[in-house]
Write a structure and sequence with these properties.
The complex is a heterodimer. By secondary structure, chain A is mainly beta. Chain A is built from no helices and 11 strands. Chain B has no helices and 11 strands. The chains are: A mainly beta, B mainly beta.
């Protein structure tokens, strides 16, 4: 079976750093994606990891450990506009399966 | 052109209607996806087409019928839907086996009365 788990909700303060974790058990692995989704909008791509380690892109970084079935998304210098849902998704073959999603609220 | 275009953006239909959702991309992507998303839930995979052939059907009821007329177009035909089928339907595309982004369209919001 496929299991991709994330915390349901997180809160943080503007300017802070937040880490959103994702654990997965899937029948195949060709990479792990992170997406941001604002309410009523389509998901937008944030990052892609296929090898172990950290990928940094501006205020966003994503880490992958394939042996542990674990990834995290790190958001630095939080802004109010970062309040959104963050979706972890695993690609196995042609199948991209989304995790449960984490709703992040940023407070002033 | 890095867009996936979905039409219509909003659709309201009765349970006896037949309608279609359309998706188009001109990025040369050969894998196209339909997802269904209910409020406050993650997208759920419905179908995957790879090189215009249906490669994955996630046990979707037959009242949803996908079609891929060519490498740029993906349709989802809807017939005899139920109110619980009301959701946001998302189309996405990527190059099979690629190590990059899955591009999403803006979605079609479907309401079944």
């Amino acid at each position: 079976g496929q299991n991709i788990d994330q915390p349901t909700e997180m809160t943080a303060t503007e300017g802070a750093i937040v880490q959103i974790n994702c654990t997965y058990q899937t029948s195949g692995f060709n990479g792990l994606f992170w997406y941001q989704q604002h309410a009523g909008e389509a998901p937008t791509f944030l990052s892609y990891n296929v090898l172990d380690g950290l990928e940094e892109k501006g205020r966003f970084s994503s880490f992958l450990s394939r042996s542990k079935g674990y990834s995290y998304l790190l958001l630095k210098e939080l802004q109010m506009k970062d309040s959104a849902s963050y979706l972890c998704a695993v690609l196995g073959g042609d199948k991209l399966i989304f995790g449960t999603g984490t709703r992040l609220q940023v407070f002033p | 052109d890095t867009e996936v275009t979905q039409t219509p953006k909003h659709l309201v239909m009765g349970m006896t209607n037949k309608k279609s959702l359309k998706c188009e991309q001109h990025m040369g992507h050969r894998a196209m996806y339909w997802y269904k998303q209910k409020a406050k839930k993650p997208p759920e995979l419905m179908f995957v087409y790879s090189y215009e052939k249906l490669s994955i059907n996630e046990s979707v009821p037959s009242r949803f019928s996908p079609e891929c007329p060519n490498s740029s177009l993906l349709n989802l035909h809807l017939h005899a839907l139920q109110p619980e089928d009301s959701a946001l339907y998302l189309c996405a595309s990527m190059t099979p086996g690629a190590t990059g982004e899955l591009f999403f369209g803006e979605g079609s919001r479907l309401t079944v009365l």
